[in-house]
Amino acid sequence: MITPVMPTYARYDVAFVKGEGAYLYAEDGRRYLDFGSGVAVTALGHAHPHLVAALTEQAGKVWHTSNLFHIPDQERLARRLTAASFADTAFFCNSGAEALEGAIKIARKYQSATGHPERFRMITFEGAFHGRTLATLAAGGQAKHLAGFGPKVDGFDQVTFGNLNETRAAIGPETAGILVEPILGEGGVYPAVADFLRGLRAAADEFGLLLIFDEVQTGMGRTGTLFAHQAADVAPDVMALAKGLGGGFPIGAILATEKAAIGMTPGTHGSTFGGNPLASAVANAVLDIVEGDGFLDHVREVAAYLRAGLEKLAASNPKIIKCVRGEGLLLGVECVVPNGDLVKRALDNGLVTIVAGGNVVRLLPPLIIEKHHVDEALEILARSCAELAN
Q1: Where residue 114 falls among pLDDT bands split at 50, 70, 90?
Q2: Which of 159, 292, 328, 374 could cross-link 224 (Cys pair, CB 3.0–4.6 Å)?
């Protein structure tokens, strides 16, 4: 008999009922250190007082009006995001998949508006994950996600991640843009090298394409800069955001240059809930913290401390851990044993982590963690490795 909640998830047998800072509390009162952050969403931890205050204050005013009317906090959020990025304009939605759908539409509309309606295809990369809609599944191209959902949506040409020559060879008369994650997150935590991203920028410029960065998982300080691509000193034409943008409240965004958004006129795209007063109030509160003095410096410092500890752990447990990779507080531990075994063992010992492709365990702690949280996580991981070895 099917369950009332559709059984599309293989859930762990834990239910969390409270969160505070870097910790979650289960129904039985047990405390867990959260190094998953709801898959990179609760970037400022749980029940952050500034976010709680912003949400409750706005909840006492107005929750939703729709985008048929001006939303002052949404306009403020757009100004702040564009001021902090390459972009000139922003569109707000509710999730990463919606942001990616909109970004793909912008690329197609740009080509149509500039006299090239035949250009509709996107170059994407093997191992990518861009969402669960039909178009974003096709963009990701992973067989396990596409199975059973009928013909793959046309318009996506996949090449090897990191291979610039293959990317350039795939550009044809119907190509509209290039879509890439600066770090393959779900696909195994593989960072793109800076030269590869710069090469994509040059190819897009050469062939009249739009370059789209999927920063749904990497954005909002996760890698130690506000957006991951900033470390490579390269800018896209369009960028998709979500996850950490709302600190746990659902909101997504598409940032674009004025040039890229030339075709996005009234009626071309929309969202009932996107950037409503509640979501915008919380996202502005997130930016208050992330843009605060010293915040990203702290992320970089604690990330380096965590990386060093993980490297030492890997060296001490070669039968369990193969290597460590990633950037900032988006780190992947590639396992020798099945990654699910380490995730489950760590959970049993009080640490929440996330599986990823490539037999990887992802560590995505809140950006507010301190070194003592890192020490606690490393101790749990060391104990879990020892138990698996025995």
Answers
A1: very high
A2: 328
